[in-house]
Amino acid sequence: MAKTKELSKDTRNKIVDLHQAGKTESAIGKQLGLRKSTVGAIIRKWKTYKTTDNLPPSGAPRKISPRGVKIITRTVSKNPRTTRGDLVNDLQRAGTKVTKPTISNTLRHQGLKSCIARRVPLLKPVHVQACLKFAREHLDDPEEDWENVIWSDETKIELFGKNSTRRVWRTKNAELHPKNTIPTVKHGGGNIMLWGCFSAKGPGQLIRVKERMNGAMYREILSENLLPSARALKMKRGWVFQHDNDPKHTARATKEWVRKKHFKVLEWPSQSPDLNPIENLWRELKVRVAQQQPQNITALEGICMEEWTKIPAPVCENLVKTYRKHLTSVIANKGYITKY
Q: Which residues does residue 154 pair with via DSSP β-bridges, in sequence order?
C-alpha cells in the first residue's frame, strides 16, 4: 500500500476545531475531503496527548549514528569477512562504543546478515569465461535433450564432523558471489569416496571408490556401472554421458575407451562442478546420511547406498527440468555459478 501524504498542521488543527464545535467525524471528513478513520485518528491523538503534532519515536535512541552505519556498511561491502569485533573496534576509534549484537542488528536493518561462506572451486578468469560460453551455447537446448543425459561425478562423505567454516556479511541470494565464498581444491580428503550417476528418470548406480582412483580404475567403474545404469534408467537411443575434465576422465586411454563404446560425451567446462545438477543430489544424500548418524565406515557406506536408492525420481526430474533456468542465472551472473 502506498504511503499517504501527511496532513498539514493547519488541517489537523481544523479537525480539532470542528470536533470542538460539535461536528461528527463523518461530517468533518466530508467537509475537508478526508476519510473518517483519518479524522478519528487525529481526534484521538488530541484527546490523549493534547496536541496534533508528530510525537517523538518511542524506544531508546539508536546507538550508531547514520555516519557510523555508513562506515560499517561500507566496510563489510568491501570485505564481507570482516568480524563483528573488527567493526566494534572501528566504531570505537571513531568515538562510538557499541556491542556485537548492536552491530548485528544494525547490519540486518541494512539487508545484511551473517552467513557461513560457501566453499566453491577456485575459479580463474578462464574458468568463468568457459562456464559463460557453455551456458550461452546450451541455453536454447530443448528440455528433451537434457532428459537424455546421464550426469556423473565423485564426492566424499565424512563420518564425523564438518569442514571448518567462515562467516561473511552478505545480502539475500548473494551466497555464491566470489567475495562471499571460500575457494577449495577438489577432493581435499575424507572418509569415503563415492562415484554415482543419475538422469531425469532417477538415481543410477552408486559405488564406493576404495583406493586412490586412477585412469584404469575409472574406466573399470564406467565399464561396470555406466551401461547398467543406462539400462536401469531406460535411457533412449543416443543418450549422452556427462563427466567433468578431471585428468582421469580426459586421459587418452579413457577417451579411446569411450570412443570404442560409442558413447556420446557432453563437452564440459573446467572447474565447474556446480553446473552439474548431481551436486544437488550429493547434498540431498549427505543430509540423509547425517540424519542417520553412522558410527563407523561400514555403516557409513551402507547408509549411503540405502539412502541413494531412496531419493525420489521426481527430485531428479525436477533438477533436469530447471536446468535451463540455472543456465540463465549463470549468464545473468556473467559466468559465476549460482544457487540451483
A: 195
The residue type at 262: H
- What digits encode the pLDDT tens for the residues 50-75? 888 877 666 656 778 888 899 899 99
Count CB atoms within 10 A of the CB of residue 217.
15
Q: Which of 165, 211, 214, 168 is nearest to 192 (CA)?
A: 211
**Residue 129 · residue 183 · CB < 8 Å:** no
Q: Report residue 234: phi and psi, to 5°.
A: 55, 50
Among residues 59, 115, 58, 68, the alpha carbon closest in space to that of 88 is found at 68
CA distance 167 to 305: 33
Q: Is the confidence at residue 182, as pLDDT, over 80?
A: no
Distance CA 40, CA 19 (A): 10
Look at residue 65 in the predicted model and tell me its pLDDT: 86
pTM: 0.62
* Residue 112: all three cell numbers together: 545484511
Residue pair 274/337 in contact (Cβ under 8 Å)? The answer is yes
